[in-house]
Design goal:
Layout: H1 2-14, H2 31-34, E1 37-38, E2 42-48, E3 51-58, E4 61-69, E5 74-80, E6 85-90, E7 93-98, E8 100-102, E9 105-111, H3 116-122, E10 125-130, E11 136-139, H4 142-151
Parallel strand pairs: 1-11
Antiparallel strand pairs: 2-3, 3-4, 4-5, 5-9, 6-7, 6-10, 8-9, 10-11
Helix pairs in contact: 3-4
Length: 156
Protein backbone atom coordinates (compact mmCIF):
# COMPACT_ATOMS: atom_id res chain seq x y z
CA UNK A 1 0.00 0.00 0.00
CA UNK A 2 2.83 2.38 0.86
CA UNK A 3 4.48 1.63 -2.43
CA UNK A 4 1.29 2.43 -4.38
CA UNK A 5 0.84 5.71 -2.50
CA UNK A 6 4.46 6.70 -3.14
CA UNK A 7 4.12 5.85 -6.83
CA UNK A 8 0.91 7.92 -7.10
CA UNK A 9 2.59 10.89 -5.40
CA UNK A 10 5.58 10.61 -7.74
CA UNK A 11 3.33 10.41 -10.80
CA UNK A 12 1.39 13.51 -9.73
CA UNK A 13 4.60 15.42 -9.04
CA UNK A 14 5.79 14.67 -12.56
CA UNK A 15 2.67 16.25 -14.07
CA UNK A 16 2.80 19.92 -14.86
CA UNK A 17 0.24 22.20 -16.41
CA UNK A 18 2.99 24.22 -18.08
CA UNK A 19 4.70 22.86 -21.17
CA UNK A 20 8.51 22.86 -21.11
CA UNK A 21 10.03 25.93 -22.79
CA UNK A 22 10.73 25.51 -26.48
CA UNK A 23 14.40 25.30 -27.37
CA UNK A 24 15.97 26.21 -30.68
CA UNK A 25 18.05 23.50 -32.37
CA UNK A 26 21.39 23.21 -30.59
CA UNK A 27 20.21 24.97 -27.44
CA UNK A 28 20.63 23.40 -24.06
CA UNK A 29 18.47 23.97 -21.00
CA UNK A 30 20.05 26.84 -19.08
CA UNK A 31 18.68 26.81 -15.55
CA UNK A 32 21.52 29.17 -14.60
CA UNK A 33 19.89 31.88 -16.72
CA UNK A 34 16.29 31.22 -15.62
CA UNK A 35 16.62 33.03 -12.30
CA UNK A 36 19.50 35.29 -13.24
CA UNK A 37 19.19 38.96 -12.41
CA UNK A 38 19.27 41.16 -15.53
CA UNK A 39 22.09 43.66 -15.32
CA UNK A 40 21.08 46.98 -16.86
CA UNK A 41 23.78 48.49 -19.01
CA UNK A 42 25.18 48.42 -22.51
CA UNK A 43 28.09 47.11 -24.55
CA UNK A 44 30.71 49.45 -25.96
CA UNK A 45 33.22 48.46 -28.64
CA UNK A 46 36.75 49.85 -28.43
CA UNK A 47 39.51 49.44 -31.00
CA UNK A 48 43.14 50.37 -30.39
CA UNK A 49 46.60 49.49 -31.62
CA UNK A 50 46.94 46.99 -28.77
CA UNK A 51 43.72 45.12 -29.66
CA UNK A 52 39.96 45.45 -29.57
CA UNK A 53 37.55 45.07 -26.68
CA UNK A 54 33.85 44.78 -25.97
CA UNK A 55 33.10 46.35 -22.60
CA UNK A 56 29.81 46.02 -20.71
CA UNK A 57 29.11 49.08 -18.59
CA UNK A 58 26.42 49.62 -15.99
CA UNK A 59 25.93 52.90 -14.12
CA UNK A 60 29.07 54.32 -15.72
CA UNK A 61 31.34 51.53 -14.50
CA UNK A 62 32.87 48.62 -16.37
CA UNK A 63 31.29 45.32 -15.31
CA UNK A 64 32.74 42.84 -17.80
CA UNK A 65 35.25 43.08 -20.62
CA UNK A 66 36.05 40.74 -23.51
CA UNK A 67 39.40 41.85 -24.91
CA UNK A 68 41.64 40.63 -27.71
CA UNK A 69 45.35 40.26 -26.98
CA UNK A 70 46.54 39.89 -30.60
CA UNK A 71 50.22 39.32 -29.79
CA UNK A 72 49.43 36.36 -27.54
CA UNK A 73 46.52 35.26 -29.79
CA UNK A 74 44.09 35.03 -26.94
CA UNK A 75 40.86 36.50 -25.61
CA UNK A 76 40.88 37.93 -22.09
CA UNK A 77 37.75 38.06 -19.95
CA UNK A 78 37.95 40.61 -17.14
CA UNK A 79 35.71 41.52 -14.23
CA UNK A 80 36.57 44.20 -11.65
CA UNK A 81 37.57 42.79 -8.29
CA UNK A 82 38.90 39.44 -7.23
CA UNK A 83 37.82 35.91 -7.91
CA UNK A 84 39.13 32.43 -8.60
CA UNK A 85 36.98 31.86 -11.70
CA UNK A 86 34.68 33.44 -14.24
CA UNK A 87 31.66 31.32 -15.21
CA UNK A 88 29.86 32.09 -18.47
CA UNK A 89 26.58 30.62 -19.75
CA UNK A 90 24.91 30.93 -23.14
CA UNK A 91 22.03 29.02 -24.76
CA UNK A 92 24.21 26.28 -26.24
CA UNK A 93 27.33 26.23 -24.06
CA UNK A 94 28.79 26.97 -20.65
CA UNK A 95 32.36 27.33 -19.44
CA UNK A 96 34.35 28.12 -16.33
CA UNK A 97 37.71 29.85 -16.63
CA UNK A 98 40.29 30.14 -13.83
CA UNK A 99 41.35 33.72 -13.15
CA UNK A 100 44.32 35.70 -11.96
CA UNK A 101 44.11 39.11 -10.36
CA UNK A 102 45.72 41.67 -12.66
CA UNK A 103 45.60 45.38 -11.81
CA UNK A 104 42.64 44.85 -9.47
CA UNK A 105 40.59 42.77 -11.90
CA UNK A 106 39.87 39.06 -12.15
CA UNK A 107 41.16 38.05 -15.59
CA UNK A 108 40.94 34.79 -17.51
CA UNK A 109 42.83 34.32 -20.77
CA UNK A 110 41.78 31.73 -23.37
CA UNK A 111 43.21 30.82 -26.75
CA UNK A 112 41.33 32.05 -29.77
CA UNK A 113 40.71 28.44 -30.84
CA UNK A 114 38.25 27.83 -27.97
CA UNK A 115 34.93 26.69 -29.44
CA UNK A 116 33.10 28.38 -26.55
CA UNK A 117 34.07 31.73 -28.10
CA UNK A 118 31.90 30.97 -31.14
CA UNK A 119 28.88 30.34 -28.90
CA UNK A 120 29.62 33.50 -26.92
CA UNK A 121 29.95 35.57 -30.10
CA UNK A 122 26.47 34.62 -31.33
CA UNK A 123 24.68 34.55 -27.96
CA UNK A 124 21.48 36.52 -27.40
CA UNK A 125 21.92 36.30 -23.63
CA UNK A 126 25.00 35.75 -21.48
CA UNK A 127 25.11 34.61 -17.88
CA UNK A 128 28.09 35.83 -15.86
CA UNK A 129 29.17 34.71 -12.40
CA UNK A 130 32.34 35.09 -10.38
CA UNK A 131 33.28 31.98 -8.39
CA UNK A 132 30.07 30.49 -6.96
CA UNK A 133 28.29 33.83 -6.83
CA UNK A 134 24.92 34.75 -8.28
CA UNK A 135 24.52 34.75 -12.04
CA UNK A 136 23.94 38.12 -13.71
CA UNK A 137 22.22 38.18 -17.11
CA UNK A 138 23.71 40.42 -19.82
CA UNK A 139 22.44 40.85 -23.36
CA UNK A 140 24.56 39.53 -26.21
CA UNK A 141 25.99 42.04 -28.67
CA UNK A 142 27.60 42.06 -32.11
CA UNK A 143 30.66 43.78 -30.57
CA UNK A 144 31.57 40.45 -28.94
CA UNK A 145 31.65 38.72 -32.33
CA UNK A 146 33.71 41.56 -33.76
CA UNK A 147 36.32 41.13 -31.01
CA UNK A 148 36.43 37.34 -31.34
CA UNK A 149 36.65 37.33 -35.16
CA UNK A 150 39.20 40.14 -35.19
CA UNK A 151 41.44 38.24 -32.79
CA UNK A 152 41.65 35.14 -34.96
CA UNK A 153 44.39 35.41 -37.59
CA UNK A 154 43.15 34.91 -41.13
CA UNK A 155 39.45 35.06 -40.20
CA UNK A 156 38.83 38.79 -40.18
Amino acid sequence: MRRAAAFAALALAACSSEPPPALKPGELPTPELDGATPLAGSWRYQASASGSAARYEANGAGVFTIRCDPQARRIVFAHPGRGRSIRLYVADAAATFPTQTVDGAAEAAVTTGQTFLDALARADTIGLAIDDGAVARLPGDKAIGTVVRGCRPGLR
